[in-house]
Amino acid sequence: MRSVLDSRQLLAARVLADTGSFTLAGQQLCLTQSAVSHAIKALEEEVECQLFTRSGKGVTVTPAGKHFLEYTDEILAQMETARTLVSARTTSGKERLRLGVSNRARNLILPVVQPQFHREFPNRLVLVHPGDYLRNFDLLDAGLLDLSFTVRPEHRSDLGFEPLFDDELQFIVSSSHPWGRSGKVAYDDIARDTLILFQDFNNTARLLSRHLQAERITPRHAVELADQGSIMNMVRTGRAVGVMSPFLVSEELQKGTLVSLSIGSHPLVRQWGLAHRGQRTLGPMDKRMIELCRQAVPGIMSRLQGATVPLAESSGEQYEKAASALLGRRLDLSKVGLILVSLQNMLMESFQRTDLTSLCLSVLATALNFAQVFADFPRRQ
């Protein structure tokens, strides 16, 4: 039986690749230069491959080493996740919030939410990156996660769910595809030779199958691919049809190189939010994370959909633009939302180091709710 790789050697390899110096790597790892050198030499002997090239100018990673470090990063991340999951929720007298996130939530929502959360709850947020939709629920059931970004789990009525936003799955085709040129779906093609590509991400396969069945659409060739990039590479050739949310390819849709089309006569809508164990009482950190996410979503969605609200140079100009937009014949919820998000960003920059931030953000969130209530009321003449 082959020996197991030493995690300390893997960590040394990652730090050495980042620093390019045995001396700097030793300083970060609190080891001597000689100890780091011996660790790397032992690792190279173990894998029977040269991972680094030494020279007078420093240390560089070999092509084989680059591939090896990709797996090293995954191993180290999984080890840290394992440590986080089995450790107690309360450490050193401080309660922590364990948040399960997907790559999309990590890239889109957390950069907006995380800084403010850390200001209010320093060193309390622990991020876990599970790679599987159902695994999130297993971790919630076991009490190893507190909240998890996910699509509403319709098959899990025992879980609590805090909604954040909706999106619609649509057919995405190249403008050179017959559907793209005609602007409509030829459903007979789906039953014959059209290649449908989708990513089984957050229950997409289950939702898509059920929706197509309800619409009496029977695809002959439906293939699941591992990532969105692979799907889009095929779609751009004009030889395949993708299924995804339009906001993920909003830039190409605006340029006209891609076309989005509804799937059937009824929209296929997903509701995104934060899931938690239904019997667990949400604490202050849970509630604040939910609140921050809800405040961030309008601005995030507007940016993804290509809408922008230019930030004025002064607060007076901001309010003047807000008032002008609100004096229309009918309140436009999207405009109101964008204006308030713009004001939110301004206040965040102005008060991010004061206690007024939370109050201001709460006021804006309330204003958004009022805008939704009165969105369909015409202006009094």
Per-chain topology:
Elements: H1 7-19, H2 22-29, H3 33-47, E1 52-55, E2 58-61, H4 63-86, E3 90-91, E4 94-95, E5 97-100, H5 103-108, H6 110-120, E6 125-128, H7 133-141, E7 147-151, E8 159-174, H8 178-182, H9 187-190, E9 195-198, H10 204-214, E10 221-224, H11 228-236, E11 241-244, H12 250-255, E12 258-261, E13 268-277, H13 284-304, H14 315-326, H15 333-351, H16 356-373
Helix pairs in contact: 1-2, 1-3, 1-4, 2-3, 6-13, 13-15, 14-15, 15-16
Q: How many distinct domains?
A: 4
Number-wise, the strands total 13
The end-to-end span amounts to 84 Å
Range of helix content: 40-55%
How would you characterize the largest beta sheet? 9 strands, mixed
Uncertain parts: 307-342, 345-355, 372-381
Report the principal-axis shape: globular
- How many helices in DSSP terms? 16
N-to-C SSE string, H for helix and E for strand: HHHEEHEEEHHEHEEHHEHEHEHEEHHHH
What is the fourth-level CATH superfamily of the largest domain?
Periplasmic binding protein-like II
Radius of gyration: 25 Å
Oligomer: single chain
Strand proportion, as a percent range, falls in: 15-25%
Structural class of the helix and strand makeup?
alpha/beta
CATH class of the largest domain: Alpha Beta
